[in-house]
């Protein structure tokens, strides 16, 4: 890992960036502290300065200045990640994209949109509602994350089972490389065989290969009909096996979410609900009216056969919003089980056929800990999480939870899965990446060295 530049170089870099951006470059303690961490358990480390560029040219010049002084650059979107991706482990400048918040174009006929990196998904969808179209952007990680950050981490969420992740929904990007060059990856065409796939190389690179400044996204039409339902089960195995049967029967689902009994209790307490505190599935169906009715009827039959309770329906938009907001608040509901705690989040994803066994082994391990450990996930695509609400002042507790996390990752990898379905590697899963990809990590390192030889782009993340 490259060492931090000496104090004189740091001050010279900050002075030049200040000349470029004026008051949009700050060294104020409050701003630096606000950019020192994300929603994770990792200790905060503040950058030396925070920059607020507004366009591609400013980002490019900022990067060129930092490259001359080998001054680290840490891209920052909304700070909603959970793997320490924005922690400035070597100081440097936090490049905040919040002022790069323009929606540049909407192509209704082509069902696409181009936005600056700081535009959030809710901002884009709110704008689309004003255009007179029925288009929306479907990738929904729960948080109102920036679309540049979502591309950088290959975000997904509850709707990925139907609409895919950011990898499937980004057509093209503009990015600034480590030497200040501005490049454009991909096109608005729906397919291309032109050269290396730099678009997908940058998606999920977590700001370590380039700074994403613009994103062109696929849009989809709102379905004619939407229905949501909640159903409790007597045990978690029956709930998971219901998911497997639904998917292997080819039933088209928009969302399938699992919350275990601990998570349901946390959600009830946090969101003021009164659901049965048992392993529970949240379903959502999209399509035409007849298609939604058919999907729901087929799923209800499987649920009944697997011992699930009757569906509790939410068909009106207000009811659905309340239902899904409770699911989105699951992380904060978990922390509320233990006031003053911080979240340590696992994020494995496995083939659907392996989901029941992986969750069974995980739940068995969790029986041995006193740390609150709700389990929930986007089980429609095999992705689940455990949120450990840990005492931030207990090294022993942190080590216990790390050991449990390693075991959960090992269960997933042994079954053809991955150590992270959507949160990324960041600081938290550096060892897991080695376990998962072995010799391929050396190839990743060679790419990093070629594109960022001085290791100024988000150093310490993804690769050691």
Characterize the structure shown.
The protein starts with 6 loop residues before the first helix and ends in a 13-residue tail after the last helix. Among the domains are: 103-221, Uridine Diphospho-n-acetylenolpyruvylglucosamine Reductase, domain 3, CATH 3.30.465.10; 225-414, 3-Layer(aba) Sandwich (Vanillyl-alcohol Oxidase, Chain A, domain 3). The mean pLDDT is 95. The protein contains 17 helices and 19 strands. The strands form four sheets. Strands 12, 13, 14, 15, 16, 17, 18 and 19 form an eight-stranded antiparallel sheet that branches. A five-stranded antiparallel sheet has the order 5-6-10-8-9. It has a four-stranded mixed sheet with strand order 1-2-4-3. The chain has helices spanning 7-21, 29-34, 56-69, 121-129, 147-153, 160-163, 166-169, 198-202, 236-248, 261-271, 289-305, 317-328, 330-336, 355-366, 395-414, 430-437, 440-451, and strands at residues 25-26, 49-51, 73-76, 93-96, 103-107, 112-116, 135-136, 170-176, 182-186, 211-218, 220-221, 225-232, 255-259, 280-287, 312-314, 342-345, 348-349, 375-378, 383-390.
Summarize the helices and strands and which ones pair or pack:
Elements: H1 7-21, E1 25-26, H2 29-34, E2 49-51, H3 56-69, E3 73-76, E4 93-96, E5 103-107, E6 112-116, H4 121-129, E7 135-136, H5 147-153, H6 160-163, H7 166-169, E8 170-176, E9 182-186, H8 198-202, E10 211-218, E11 220-221, E12 225-232, H9 236-248, E13 255-259, H10 261-271, E14 280-287, H11 289-305, E15 312-314, H12 317-328, H13 330-336, E16 342-345, E17 348-349, H14 355-366, E18 375-378, E19 383-390, H15 395-414, H16 430-437, H17 440-451
Parallel strand pairs: 2-4, 3-4
Antiparallel strand pairs: 1-2, 5-6, 6-10, 7-11, 8-9, 8-10, 12-14, 12-15, 13-14, 13-18, 16-19, 17-19, 18-19
């Amino acid at each position: 890992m490259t060492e931090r530049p000496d104090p004189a170089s740091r001050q010279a870099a900050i002075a030049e960036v200040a000349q470029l951006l004026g008051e949009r470059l700050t060294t104020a303690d409050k701003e630096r502290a606000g950019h020192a961490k994300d929603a994770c358990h990792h200790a905060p480390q503040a950058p030396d300065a925070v920059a607020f560029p507004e366009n591609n040219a400013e980002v490019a010049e900022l990067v060129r200045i930092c490259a001359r002084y080998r001054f680290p650059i840490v891209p920052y979107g909304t700070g909603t990640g959970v793997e320490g991706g924005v922690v400035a482990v070597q100081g440097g400048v936090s490049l905040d994209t919040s002022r790069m918040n323009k929606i540049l174009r909407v192509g209704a006929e082509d069902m696409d949109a181009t936005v600056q990196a700081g535009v959030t998904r809710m901002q884009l969808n709110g704008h689309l509602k004003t255009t007179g179209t029925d288009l929306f952007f479907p990738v929904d990680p729960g948080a109102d994350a920036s679309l540049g950050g979502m591309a950088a981490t290959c975000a997904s969420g509850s709707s990925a089972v139907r609409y895919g992740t950011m990898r499937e929904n980004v057509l093209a990007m503009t990015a600034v490389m480590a030497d200040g060059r501005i490049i454009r990856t991909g096109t608005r065409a729906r397919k291309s065989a032109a050269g290396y796939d730099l678009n997908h190389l940058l998606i999920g690179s977590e700001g370590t290969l380039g700074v994403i400044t613009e994103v062109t996204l696929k849009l989809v039409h709102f379905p004619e009909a939407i229905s949501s339902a909640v159903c409790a089960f007597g045990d978690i195995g029956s709930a998971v096996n219901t998911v497997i049967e639904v998917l292997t029967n080819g039933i088209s689902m928009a969302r399938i979410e699992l919350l275990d009994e601990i998570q349901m209790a946390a959600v009830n307490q946090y969101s003021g609900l009164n659901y049965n505190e048992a392993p529970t599935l949240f379903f959502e169906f999209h399509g035409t009216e007849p298609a939604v009715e058919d999907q729901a009827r087929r799923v209800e039959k499987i649920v009944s056969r697997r011992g699930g309770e009757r569906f509790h329906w939410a068909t009106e938009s207000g009811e659905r919003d309340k239902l899904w907001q409770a699911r989105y608040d699951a992380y904060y509901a978990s922390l509320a089980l233990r006031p003053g705690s911080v979240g340590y989040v696992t994020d494995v994803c496995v083939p659907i056929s392996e989901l029941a066994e992986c969750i069974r082994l995980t739940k068995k391990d969790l029986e041995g800990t006193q740390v609150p450990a709700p389990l929930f996930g986007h089980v429609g695509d095999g992705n689940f999480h455990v949120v450990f609400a840990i005492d931030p002042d207990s090294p022993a507790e942190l080590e216990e939870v790390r050991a449990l996390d390693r075991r959960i990752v090992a269960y997933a990898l042994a079954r053809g899965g991955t150590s992270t379905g959507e949160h990324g590697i960041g600081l938290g899963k550096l060892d897991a990446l080695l376990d998962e990809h072995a010799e391929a990590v050396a190839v990743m390192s060679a790419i990093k060295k070629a594109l960022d030889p001085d290791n100024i782009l988000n150093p310490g993340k993804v690769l050691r």
